[in-house]
Amino acid sequence: MTTDPYAWIEQSLVTIQRADWYRSVQTLSDRPGATVVLAGREVINFASNDYLGLAGDERLIAAATTAIHELGTGSTGSRLLSGHRELHRELEIAIASLKQTEDAIVFSSGYLANLGAIASVVGKRDLILSDQYNHSSLKNGAVLSGAAIIEYPHCEVVALKTQLSQQRQNYRRCLIITDSVFSMDGDLCPLPALLEMSAEFNCMLLVDEAHATGVIGKTGAGCVEHFGCTGKPLIQIGTLSKALGSLGGYVAGSANLIDFLRNRAPTWIYTTGLSPADTAAALAAIQVVQQEPQRRIQLWRNVEYLKNLMQQQLPHLKLLPTESPILCFQLPSPGDALRVGQHLKDAGIFAPAIRPPTVPTSRIRISVMATHTTEQIEKLVAVLRNTD
Ligand code: PMP
């Protein structure tokens, strides 16, 4: 019998296409910004996580360029094995200072930071309680850890408490994991209540500030700052790739936690250190975040302006409740989301359709930037008004 062991892949692709779940990548051909060139045409960009408009900032570009000239392009190996640069520690100290934690550790991506942190602090005899809408990196970190996993309904603290009351005593350690800003909805986790719960049931609490760092909180330190929880016993995760305009991820927390991760986290120990260019760009971005609060203020002005316009002029759109620069409205099917996404693109607006399996219901995700102009925001609303 000769069969093709890979034939199922083509079949799967056909199934994905039939369900309108098929995805393809769009090619951009200039620097990131409030407008980008997509397939040779300038469009207004509501599709990036570059909330502060720093990914194309001259200062970040200059810092990255200088780092390449002085330190080369690659980090040449794992930091433990091949050594690291002063720049790596400077970045970690800058993150710890922004977050007001004892220390921080930089990973090569936010995804790897979540995998490494979760898999290091819990194992087979432990329990993870995970918000149903958590990012893939938290979910896969939980699986990698080997701990028992219970998903609690999105942001429902009462349901979480019921699970803890019933299950906590059956496990050695317990870790609650949550996004702080939910990336496909835009709402915030109930951090103070989660902290209370973790204290009551002797649990660790890991919060992913990927979409909050640089964006939320008086100094841009994230939801932890916004909720007045600075200094609380937390494992804070984040990325350098969104508001900080670079690449990489981090964990911030107690000196012991960070020291432990340097000795245990497989996604830090067994992977090459962040490149000098990415490290320098992220360091420059943190300086901008700390020195230019007006960028964050402008971002929130833009968010409020768009939200108000949408509520006044597009009341029929099912806007999900949001407290972040991520604004999503739901559509009945993946096909509808694709159609609206295409209509927007035809009209010069880049805002992606998000479909299952990424999210339970299809939607258009609009991501606001500090550098969007009033006219660009008004154009988005005008185009949406003409969408049936
Ligand atoms: N956590 C959340 C909530 C995210 O949205 C993302 C990126 N989409 C990550 C982690 C992963 O970060 P990175 O892109 O740096 O791997």
UniProtKB/TrEMBL annotation:
Pathway: Cofactor biosynthesis; biotin biosynthesis. InterPro entries: Aminotrans_II_pyridoxalP_BS, Aminotransferase_I/II_large, AON_synthase_class-II, AONS_Archaea/Proteobacteria, PyrdxlP-dep_Trfase, PyrdxlP-dep_Trfase_major, PyrdxlP-dep_Trfase_small. Its cofactor is pyridoxal 5'-phosphate. It catalyses: 6-carboxyhexanoyl-[ACP] + L-alanine + H(+) = (8S)-8-amino-7-oxononanoate + holo-[ACP] + CO2. Residues 42-383 form the Aminotransferase class I/classII large domain. Its EC number is 2.3.1.47. The modification N6-(pyridoxal phosphate)lysine is found at K242. One of its GO terms (molecular function) is pyridoxal phosphate binding. Homodimer. Catalyzes the decarboxylative condensation of pimeloyl-[acyl-carrier protein] and L-alanine to produce 8-amino-7-oxononanoate (AON), [acyl-carrier protein], and carbon dioxide. This is 8-amino-7-ketopelargonate synthase. It comes from Anabaenopsis circularis NIES-21.
